[in-house]
Amino acid sequence: MTTSLALCFDAPLQSWGTRSRGIIRDTAREPTKSGVVGLLAAALGARRDDDETTQRLAALHLAIRVDREGILERDYHTTQNVPTTEGKGHRTVVSERYYLADALFLVVLEGDPDLLHQLHDRADRPHWPLFFGRRAFVPARPLLTEDALTAAPAAEVISTHRWLEADPDAIKAARLGADRVPLRTITDCEPAKHGAQPRHDHPVSIAQRTFRTRYVLNATTDLTDALIRAGESTSCS
Fold first, then answer.
1. CB 195 within 8 A of CB 154
2. What is the pTM (predicted TM-score) of this model?
3. N or C: which end of the chain has fewer CB within 10 A?
4. 4-152+184-222: CATH, from 3.40.30.10, 3.40.20.10, 3.30.70.2660, 3.40.50.12780
């Protein structure tokens, strides 16, 4: 039996790094699989060196709908008195850190029913605090959406789940037809799928920071009247 779990990722700031070593800390424009797995592992209370749980979570089919595109922002950091690698004195380190402001995502996981039920039980009662890429970037509202667990495949949930937008002005504008554009989607797929694109963010071991490549399909789904009407009177709960 197909089981999917729908989650709401909403926060003033989010960061989903893909190449965050050295002085440049980047962010993808939507949650990475490694980031989603890390967050879910924290909810379950799995340790960083629990590779079995990491791989069980990473095996879930991931689909993301971008309900509000975030604004890409950059912080310029300077850190003084950093010890040199030779241990002879100190230096100042300059880094650039990117993040998304005001982004909103519908994150859908499909797969092992037992695991998804565990995640449903822990999503809003996490073992450890949850954050979106950096410890200061905490959720603005509960992760669980209404009817979070469904028997529908992720592809169906992505196209039929209510719009998660909670801003009355944005909802009104969309309802009237102003600035209504299709919602971007990013979905796990087979490598042979036409249009498949590689993403090197499928975690194998969080503790050892090892990853393998997965493939995703970038597409869009229409922001329909039904999705907007369903979102007008409900919120993530």
1. no
2. 0.89
3. N
4. 3.30.70.2660
